[in-house]
């Protein structure tokens, strides 16, 4: 099993013997505790699935290790220590690290660490203040300041929530949960405590308007529309606490008439309507704003609608461990219990799939990807209303009829189709990948099916849609140097040198200016290596080229 943000493996040598590094184990436990908790297995090497067959763990040594770690990790709870014998006969020690929900876990010398993705990193400066602020917000859902009992909640809201849970598909809510009684279901979703008191989460979903209004900071929304000069021309508000989160999202979608505008895209003899903002994208953005906002900050969620874009703004920055350039890959929850109710009622997608869905829908409609900004105390997500590229949209529609694309493939293909031609570096950046080598998992079968072509090697690799794909889709695409296949580009360079012999590289690029100089240089160097053209002069900058 590979390491994740909730699972870590450590070598036997880290815990036992003369080279033991207990401080490192303590740091690992602090990292897990400050994130979501997790499992620590001691005695298995990083790239191995099983411990050595002859490895044995002494019970007394294990007890002493746990005690020592406990003395070097403050506010860290360790539970369920087990010595497990693997199928090959080797033994390893497994620990469960409890999440530190309301306090910050530290090492004995006062240092703070947190699990970010698969790495354990120190938390300092502004990030430490953010972590402290979020710790106070982690448990907002489970507080019971109003001391309201089940019978005092709105019966209509309780019935609404229970009906949604029992009607949910089994991949959202198990049959075991559906078979529970009403109080047991509410207890399961942390809406009630065992003593029968309603939590803040319970009041948010099930309370009367008066009870919701008494929440410290409830769920309130403002909808603001602007004209071409960015002057506000209309405002809608949801500040009366009459609606539960699901009803509130539906009402915003219904009353926000600008959200339903569409473009007309030519499609043969007809015109096709494409929404400016796909409905699934809007719902996911709003659900994320509801679920991930800080409920300890007195700021409303704001939806700003401009003629060319839409901005969704919610209180609080991204959860610690997520940045605007990693949001497609990192998985960190802020309001755990709240998100579980959102997923169970169908208000949002499953864990970590929200931005995957947003990227997929926007790419599928040949529209720009979202922009995420958390520079200040609010998180702002911007999506653009511009009309889709008709050629890219028609190509994606045609290919989708014949190929069963995976989600990553359609995202990647959408980006390449809109650009027509993109470098590996730019594609990796668009997909928020740290290493270009990981592109192959996103390209998937696109290269194998020859829908996408690659030219160049390593960092100079570029990707483009195969011109044959446009032809197969009966698209009358104007020829472009950007989509020219390599052998045709080389023939074009030969024609250029036949007309203008003894040319500098800059001269060739100027005459074929639609392509970058790097592309021209790569093909010229390859043609020199193949003997198809001859270089004249030693200095690279002043070297001239001609046909043999």
From TrEMBL:
It comes from Hymenobacter edaphi. Pfam families: HATPase_c_4, SLFN_AlbA_2. This is Schlafen AlbA-2 domain-containing protein. InterPro entries: RecG_C_sf, Schlafen_AlbA_2_dom, Schlafen_AlbA_2_dom_sf. The lineage of its organism: Bacteria, Pseudomonadati, Bacteroidota, Cytophagia, Cytophagales. It comes from the Bacteria. Residues 9-123 form the Schlafen AlbA-2 domain.
């Amino acid at each position: 099993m590979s390491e994740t943000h909730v699972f870590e493996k450590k070598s036997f040598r880290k815990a036992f013997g003369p080279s033991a590094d207990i401080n490192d184990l303590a740091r690992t436990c602090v990292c897990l505790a400050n994130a979501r908790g997790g499992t620590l297995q001691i005695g298995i090497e990083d790239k191995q699935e099983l411990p050595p067959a002859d490895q044995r763990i002494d019970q007394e040594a294990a007890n002493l290790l746990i005690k020592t770690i406990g003395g070097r990790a403050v506010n860290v709870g360790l539970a369920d220590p087990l010595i497990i014998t693997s199928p090959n006969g080797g033994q390893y020690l497994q620990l469960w690290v409890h999440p530190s929900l309301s306090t910050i876990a530290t090492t004995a010398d006062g240092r703070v660490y947190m699990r970010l993705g698969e790495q354990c990193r120190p938390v300092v400066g502004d990030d430490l203040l953010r972590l402290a602020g979020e710790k106070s917000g982690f448990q907002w859902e489970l507080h019971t300041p109003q001391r309201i009992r089940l019978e005092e909640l709105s019966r209509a809201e309780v019935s609404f929530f229970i009906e949604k849970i029992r009607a949910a598909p089994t991949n959202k809510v198990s049959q075991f949960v559906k078979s529970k009684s009403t109080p047991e279901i509410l207890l399961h979703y942390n809406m009630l405590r065992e003593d029968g008191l309603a939590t803040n989460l319970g009041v948010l979903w099930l309370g009367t308007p008066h009870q919701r209004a008494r929440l410290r900071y409830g769920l309130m929304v403002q909808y603001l529309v602007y004209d071409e000069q960015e002057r506000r021309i209309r405002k809608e508000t949801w500040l009366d606490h009459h609606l539960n989160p699901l009803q509130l999202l539906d009402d915003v979608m219904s009353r926000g008439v600008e959200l339903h505008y569409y473009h007309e895209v030519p499609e043969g003899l007809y015109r096709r309507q494409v929404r400016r903002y796909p409905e699934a994208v809007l719902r996911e953005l709003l659900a994320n704003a509801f679920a991930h906002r800080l409920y300890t900050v007195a700021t409303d969620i704001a939806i700003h609608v401009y003629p060319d874009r839409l901005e969704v703004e919610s209180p609080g920055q991204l959860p610690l461990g997520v940045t605007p350039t990693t949001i497609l890959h990192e998985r960190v929850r802020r309001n755990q219990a709240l998100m579980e109710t959102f997923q169970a009622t169908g208000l949002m997608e499953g864990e970590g799939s929200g931005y995957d869905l947003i990227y997929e829908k926007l790419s599928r409609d040949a529209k720009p990807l979202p922009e995420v900004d958390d520079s200040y105390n609010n998180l702002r997500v911007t999506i653009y209303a511009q009309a889709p590229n008709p050629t890219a949209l028609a190509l994606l529609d045609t290919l989708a009829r014949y190929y069963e694309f995976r989600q990553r493939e359609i995202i990647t293909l959408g980006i390449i189709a809109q650009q027509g031609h993109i470098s590996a570096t730019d594609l990796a950046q668009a997909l928020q990948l740290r290493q270009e080598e990981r592109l192959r998992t996103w390209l998937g079968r696109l290269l194998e099916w020859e829908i996408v072509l690659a030219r160049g090697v390593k960092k100079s690799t570029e990707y483009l849609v195969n011109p044959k794909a446009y032809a197969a889709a009966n698209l009358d695409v104007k020829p472009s140097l950007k989509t020219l296949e390599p052998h045709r580009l080389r023939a074009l360079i030969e024609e250029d040198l036949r007309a203008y012999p003894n040319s500098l590289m800059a001269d060739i690029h100027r005459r074929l200016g639609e392509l970058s100089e790097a592309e021209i240089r790569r093909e010229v160097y390859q043609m020199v290596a193949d003997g198809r053209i001859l270089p004249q002069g030693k200095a690279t900058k002043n070297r001239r080229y001609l046909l043999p």
